[in-house]
Every structure is written in structure tokens, then in C-alpha cells.
Amino acid sequence: MCVEGDGCELEGCGNLDEVRTLSGSMMSPAAALKSNADLHACKPGQKFRAALLRCRSPVVAAVILSFGNVLNYMDRYTVAGVALDIQKDYDVSDSGVALLQTVFICSFMVAAPIFGYLGDRFNRKAILSCGIFFWSTVTLLSSFISKEYYWLFVLSRGLVGIGESSYSSISPTIIGDLFTNNKRTMMLSFFYLAIPLGSGLGYILGTSAKLAGGDWHWALRVSPVLGMTAATLILLFVPEPKRGSADQMGGRIKTRTSWFCDMKALAKNRSYVFSSLASAAVSFATGAFGMWIPIYLARAQVVQKTATATAEPCDNKEICSSTESLVFGAITCITGLLGVLIGAATTRLCRKKTERADPLVCAVSMLGSAIFICLIFVVAKKNIIGAYVCIFIGETLLFLNWAITADILMFVVIPTRRATAVAFQSFTSHLLGDAGSPYLIGLISDSLRQSYATSALWRFLSLGYALMLCPFIIVLGGMFFLATALFFLDDREKAQNQLSQLSRPSTSVKV
């Protein structure tokens, strides 16, 4: 299917003036060709182009973009899946290995506003493809860095963060312009399902590739190949819809606001501000857990002196054989699927009872998650299965709000500034969240261990005490979602009014 204005007319096969936007009624290129008696036969290359355009449906685009998001997060957490091996190979402390994630997130969040600005003004799918090619290449090259150059390995993770920020900032806005209302909620849920799914697969991929290749460096040589495949699919099959086409039902936005005006409006948007702060709380917890929970559970196994772990996992081994990353990865995949699906279904059901359903569902899920995450650190010393159960329930509740938060943004922000809004929400959530949480937890753990005798038990306890900070941050995030609920309806109505003004040919728009 062609998108109005995306330059996909079939040159030499006739004039497809009747093709409309994706949000309105559509005529496929094949139907248009058949209905026009004046058309001459297409050349082979033009037939391929027509077939290619028929594959550019909104659903196909959403699937490809979701696949790219899976790869984004899979690459991000592959490093966390082999963190024990990296720590042993480069001989660094807890805070030293956590620096990998911190540098990645810092570069990610700094680049996000830049890509948000570009995404609201230039071809989005070209930016996405270039970003994927970039991080895939850097990840592949980083797998050949020797242990004498840890600083270079850290730097490579920062470059990967720049590449991945282009994707996370822009791709949700394309889905927002392809669908509307409940369909948009469903497709965004599918897209954000890629976060826990990709994260879990990252742990699984990292551990599996390491064991298969006999070297942890092989964990970084699989996702780049898949990433380049995804970039090619985006170039071929993802359309470039007009910004606001779904919201306008085929209308055209006549007026565009300046970047300064966009930022001023976002700062005044209370629903956007509070939901961004809540997202920061989620990022703080997920960033810390993603880095440290597998290591924490491995240390719990040592403390319990189980049959499979009678000594520190990596003390005298070429590669770490701990299975905690595999188990945690599988749990993350399953809880991500359940969380996103339950969140979408719950929100749709609650919308029948209250128009504030989106932020309220997020708030309740966050507060419930904090309870079970607290229990992880209570039961892990005695019962590793009990810890896994608490992780399962806590993560499921925490993952409920990912897609809903994105949908809140789509409701309260007009289409022409959504990429900027997504980018700055990403910047805020990373700046206050996972940019510092893995490193902060590592610093606290190192500090506690230095104050007491170094032993397997205290290595376990110090990390557990440091991770106890996360439930308190999650509760704070729940409070921010409750604040979002107070202003959600007013901000949604303001966005609808601004969109109507932008659709008129007036030269000045009040924001």
C-alpha cells in the first residue's frame, strides 16, 4: 500500500492519484492498475515495486518495527547476560562492570533529544535504518577488543547507545501515525512487548552463545547480523506515513510549531511530566534488576551451598557456568508477555468505567510490584525457588505499564511533536533512572563489602541491601502515575483542541 506523499507512485505504470492515506479508505496498487484501462504493461522492475508496495501494510510495518525493538533490547542485555564473565576477564569490581550499562544509557539519553528533533522533521525510517546499521557494526567490532583495553570496550557501549537511541525515539511515532484508538493501544502493546522479550532473549542469547562458542565474546556476534537484517526490512517494507494522518482521518496538518514552542508546551503538559517521572522510576528498577539480579541469584546459590554451586561460580573456570542468566531471561520473556497483554486488556476493560483508566492501571500495578520485589530479598537466602516466584509476580506487575505509558503520551501530545516528546521522556527516564541505578547499586554494594569482612555471604548480603533501594523508587513511581491521573483528561482535551488548530491554515497557533 502507498502512503500519501511518501513518493511511492508506480512510475511508468500509470498515475495512482486515488491512493489515500493509511488511516482512510485505501485502494491497493493492484486494484488501481486493474481499474485504469489506459495503463500499459509494467516492466519487470516496476512489477517488483508494485509487489513491494502491496506488502507495506500498517500491520506488517508494526511487526517489523517490533522485531527491531526486540533486537535493540536483546543487544542491550546480552552484555548483562555475560556480566560475570566480563567482570572476571577484565578483572573489575561491581561498580566497574556496572559502568558498561551506565555509559550505554548516558549516551542513549543524550542522543535521544537530537533524534527526537530529527524524527519530527525528516524521513524517519531512514534514520531508523542508519541507527540499526551503526549499533550493529559497533557491537560486532567490540567483540574483538582484548582484555587490556577495558576502556575501549566501555567506549564501544557508549557508541551502541547512540545508535539505539535513534530507534527508541522515533519508531513509536510511526506506529502512532499508522493506527488510532484501541488499535493503536494494541499495536503499541505489541511493540513494547519487545522490551521484556528482547531483554530476556538477551540473557538467553548471551549465555547460550557463550557456552556454544566456549568464549563470552561470541555473545556479541549474533545480534549484529539480525540487526542488519531488520534495518533492510525497514527500508523495504515500512512506510513513512504523514504525521498525524491517523488522528486527522486523512486530513492535513497545515501549521508546524517551532522546537522552542514544542518544548514549552511539553513542559506545561502535566500529564506528560508526571508520566515521564513515573517512567524514570520504572527505568531505575529495571536497569538495576537487569544488571544485578542474575549476579545476586548466583551469589544466593553460593550461600546456600547447593549441589551446583559450592564455590564462587567463576573462581576457577574458563567461562562462568551459572544458569541464573538463562532462568532470569526466560522469566523476563514470560512476564513481559503476560504483563503487556494483561495491561492492554485491563486498560481496555477499565476504560468502560473511567476515562482515567490508563494512569490508574499503571499506578496500581507499580504499587503491587513493590511488595513482591521487597520479598525477593527476604526469601532469596533460604529458598531460591521462592525468589524466582517473587521475581515472576513482581516483574509481571512492573511490565504492565510500558505500553500504557506510551499510549498516555499519544493521547496528550499532538502528532507533530510526538517524536520530541518520546525522546525527552526517554532522556528523563534514563537520566533519573537506569543511567545511574546499576552503577549506584554497584557502589553501595562495594562500600558495604569494604566495611565488613569479605566473604561469600557478605558479597550476597551487600548486593541485596543495595538492591533494596529499588522498591522504594517503584512506590514513588506509583505516586507519579496517580498524579498523572489527576490531569490526564484536561491535557487530552487540550491536545485535541491544539490538533484542530494545527489542521487549519491559520498562520499562528496558540499552544
Summarize the entry for a quick read.
Helices cover 73% and strands 0% of the residues. With 511 residues, it is mostly helical. The longest helix has 35 residues, at 270-304.
Q: What structural keywords apply?
A:
511 residues, disordered N terminus, mainly alpha, 21 helices
Descriptive overview:
By secondary structure, this protein is an all-alpha fold. Helices cover 73% and strands 0% of the residues. α3 (58-81) crosses α9 (194-213), α6 packs antiparallel against α7 and α13 (270-304) runs antiparallel to α21 (469-502). The chain is globular.
* Integer-rounded radius of gyration: 24 Å
Order of helices and strands: HHHHHHHHHHHHHHHHHHHHH
Share of helical residues: over 70%
Largest sheet: none
Coarse structural class = mainly alpha
Beginning-to-end CA distance, first to last residue = 35 Å
Question: Mean pLDDT, rounded to whole units?
Answer: 77
Please tally the helical runs, counting DSSP H or I stretches of 4 or more residues: 21
The stretches of 5 or more residues where confidence is low (pLDDT under 50) are 1-42, 307-313, 506-511
Report the β-strand fraction as a percent range: under 5%
**Shape label:** globular
Number of strands: 0
